[in-house]
Structure formats: structure tokens, C-alpha cells
Specification:
2 copies of one chain form a homodimer.
Chain A lengths: L9 E7 L1 H4 L7 H11 L3 E8 L3 H14 L2 E5 L10 H8 L4 E3 L1 H12 L7 H4 L3 E3 L3 E3 L8 E4 L2 E4 L3 H12 L9 E7 L7 H10 L3 E10 L2 E10 L2 H17 L4 E3 L7
Parallel strand pairs in A: 1-2, 1-3, 3-8
Antiparallel strand pairs in A: 4-5, 6-7, 7-8, 9-11, 9-12, 10-11
Helix pairs in contact in A: 3-4, 8-9
Chain lengths: ~260, ~260
């Protein structure tokens, strides 16, 4: 008996930090996480960058937590006064913040091996919402946590990435999308009707078109994505055939590429 | 009697595009716009990346348009079937989409100079919500628009940046700068030294350069900005004269344009 098709899990990313909104720091976490989630077959539905304001964090987390299967936050879990993510997420779900014994032990051990004092500010990083599950931090010890469907990660890209690597295998994976690129030696506007027709004729695929220009040359990369590999391949063939019929060159560069 | 202090205007950015959420394309517009707005004294309150889904665009635009003084969107205004931003924003404000005569004339003229047909798909880029104000596109002609407090820009970073340069001095909180464009029929790398020399020789101006390519043709739009109109005009003349001395055509397209 065949299983009913499960839709892919959905996700949202919330980047928390005034320094991103001011333009001083450029966010690198959305693009990186988007790529990881895509490769795992998890559909990223939305990403938001919000300020370090407790009520904004609470509202945003509750909104996206209700609408997506998984939420990932980045930023605001360090030792300083402006790190308010933990408090805000605990408040969002009506949980107390407790000094977490396991987190405290890990941090204590970490600071014993350094010249740094495990002072009150650093101890704050062991404060975790009650009932949360810790996310291991292989780089700098201070853990993240999971509360409900919200996965709380730090803002520093290298630490976020190392922590996500350990987290990834716990996440529900979807079916990885098949993505096929058809390189077309013609302008986007010339093949717009072809793309609309091919998309309409093939169920469950979506077609994006990305024009590119360089001196003396131009073209359009057409990306066909879909859960059903065979249908995506048929759609790619249909695009290539129809574009060639206009007199322009077209070739499939990544048939069967599921990355 | 002194005026009461005005709080800084607030802004939100909405990046519209499945290709950003899938991780295939990394967003560059949020960081760039955040920096520009910050330098102008406009407070960026939130940035969102959302999918190409009409109802999501409508809901997001209405939400942020009500909560912020200024909204900027990026993406989804090209010629293909997945470019639905214009329709969605018109629908959000209960406006019809009309074939805009000025936009149509600009596009028609643009495509006359190319091998590309001004076909139905490309004509779609002249469709603008009723009562919207056009935003000039010095690179690829297809205009953006302003409807209510929403500023609709394309997704390609170089085009978005060139269009924002022209828009910036119209925004509240922005210092009113003189901006002059010099269109140069040559590559950016060829005139880099000229631009550096002209900038060094003229106090208080800054020079941006935006290379553009179309089939069989390419050039560089040089944008000179400064608080002192006379100095900006001298710098524009200096750029045009020096570029012409290399044998390439150059002409000032917007002397004294403070828009």
C-alpha cells in the first residue's frame, strides 16, 4: 500500500539584531540556513530580520511558530544586557527562565580551560527556559536550545553553523527537490510565454528564470524544481525543445541534480 | 520658537523571491539598503524575505505599510509569469493595473536600440498600478514605482542600487543631494582612474558607477552626488570631458536633477 504523500515540512528564520538592521553587520545566516534547509527538503517559507525589542521578538516568534513546522532564530543569546532572546522566547511560551544545571556545568568546564572568569555575565548564558532541550555548542560552549518548535541559535555565523550541523540530523527531513537548470541563449522576455505554458502543463513543478548579462553575451538560466523527478525532467525537456524551436540555443546543464 | 524634535522616519524592506528562500541566490539588497537608510537617518525597523505568493505579498505589504513610514520592496517586477509583485501591490491598495504610457514609451525606446523584440512579455513591464509614481531606471529602462508609501524596486542588485540613487533625495529624512548621471559608452574598468581623479579633485562629491550590458552594447552610468550643485555639475563636466578624450561617447543625462 502506498503512503499518502506528505508535504515537506516548512520553516521560518528569525534574525534578531539591531546591528543587522543598521547595516553595520551584513547577515550571513539566512543564506546559509536557506541552503541547508533546501538540501534537506525543508521548505523555507519566510525569513525576518527584527530589532532587539522584547515584544517584537515575542510577537514574531508566536506568529511564525504557529504558521511553520520549524522556526530557527539567530542572535541575542550572548552575555550582555542587550541579549534578550532567551527571555523573550521563554515569555512567548509562558515559561520561566532557570539556571540550567547541564548548561552551567558545560560552561564552567569551558571557562576553567581559559584565562576568562566565569562571572555573572557569562553565567547568564546558562539561563535557559524551563522544559527546553539544549543544543550543543562545539565551539564556544554556550548552548542554544529548542522550545516547542523554536530552535534558538547564536548570531556568529561560524558558531551557528557548527551548532546547526549537530542539530540537522534531529530535524524532520522532507523529500529533496529535483532541480534542473536549462541554459537558454536568449532573453527572459523572449521565452516568458514558453515558461508559463510549460509550468501550466506540468503538475507540481515551479519554474524560475534568472537573466544574466556579460559583455557581448547574454542569456537566461531557467530553473525547474519539483518533488517528482520524472515530471521535472519532462518539463526541462519541454523548455529546451520550445526554446530551440525559436532558433536560440538551449541545453540542460543539471539533469538529475538533486542538490 | 523651536520646532519639536521629529523622530526619525521608519522603514521596512520586503524581499520577494522563491530563489532567495531556496538558498540558490543570496540576498544582497537588505544589507545594501540598510546601510543607505542608516546613513540617511531613516531607521530600518524590519526586513522580510517572502515567497512569490500573491496573498503573502499583499498581507506583508499592508502590515508593514501601516506600521512604518516607508516600505521598500525588491524583486518580482520582470517580464515572466512568476513576476507578480506589481499585481499584488496594486491589489493590496485596491488599485487597477494599467498600461502606463510613460513607462511604455521609455521601454519602447529602449528596445528599439536592441535586437530584442518589444513583445507582450516585455510590454508587461509597462503595467503599473493606477495613481503610482514611476521610479526611473537608468540601467535597463523598466521602471519601478511608488504607491502610497511603498517603493517598488527590482531584485537585481546593480539595477536596484542605480534606481535607489535617484530615489534617495525624495525620501523624508534624506539630505537633499544634487545627483547627476553621466552615461558613458565604455566599460567601468576603462574609466575607473578618471572617476577616482575627478572625485579627488572635487570636494564633497561622491561618484558611483553602474555598468550595464545589453545585446550588442554596453556602457557605464556614472552617478555624481553632492550637496553643492555647482561642484557636482563641474564634476559631471569633468567626467564627460575626460571620457570623451578616451574616444568614447559620454553625455550628461540629468544635470541639475535633484530627483
Amino acid at each position: 500500500m502506498s503512503q499518502p504523500a506528505q508535504p515537506n515540512p516548512t520553516a521560518a528564520i528569525i534574525v534578531i539584531g539591531d546591528e543587522i538592521l543598521s547595516g553595520r553587520t551584513k547577515d550571513k545566516n539566512i543564506g546559509w540556513l536557506a541552503e541547508q534547509l533546501g538540501a534537506m527538503g525543508i521548505t523555507l517559507h519566510e525569513a525576518r530580520i527584527i530589532p532587539d525589542i522584547k515584544q517584537v521578538i515575542i510577537d514574531t516568534v508566536l506568529d511564525l511558530s504557529a504558521r511553520c513546522d520549524l522556526v530557527f532564530t539567530s542572535g541575542g543569546i550572548g552575555p550582555t544586557h542587550d541579549d534578550i532572546t532567551t527571555d523573550a522566547i521563554a515569555a512567548a511560551f509562558g515559561k520561566q527562565v532557570i539556571r540550567h544545571p547541564e548548561a552551567e556545568a558545560v560552561l564552567q568546564k569551558h571557562y576553567q580551560n581559559t584565562d576568562l572568569e566565569f562571572n555573572a555575565a557569562r553565567q547568564k548564558m546558562a539561563d535557559i527556559p524551563k522544559d527546553a532541550t539544549l543544543i550543543d555548542n562545539p565551539l564556544s560552549a554556550a548552548p542554544g536550545f529548542i522550545l516547542e518548535n523554536v530552535h534558538v541559535l547564536p548570531g556568529v555565523p561560524s558558531i551557528l553553523q557548527a551548532m546547526f550541523e549537530g542539530l540537522a540530523s534531529r530535524l524532520p527531513g522532507g523529500v529533496v527537490m529535483t532541480r534542473i537548470t536549462v541554459q537558454c541563449a536568449t532573453g527572459e522576455g523572449t521565452i516568458a510565454t514558453i515558461l508559463a505554458n510549460v509550468q501550466a502543463a506540468h503538475n507540481g513543478i515551479s519554474i524560475g528564470s534568472y537573466p544574466w548579462f556579460k559583455p557581448g553575451n547574454f542569456g537566461t538560466a531557467v530553473v525547474i524544481s519539483g518533488l517528482d523527478e520524472a515530471v521535472a525532467e519532462q518539463a526541462a525537456e519541454a523548455v529546451a525543445t520550445a526554446v530551440k524551436a525559436t532558433g536560440a540555443d538551449a541545453f540542460i546543464v543539471a539533469a538529475g541534480d538533486t542538490a
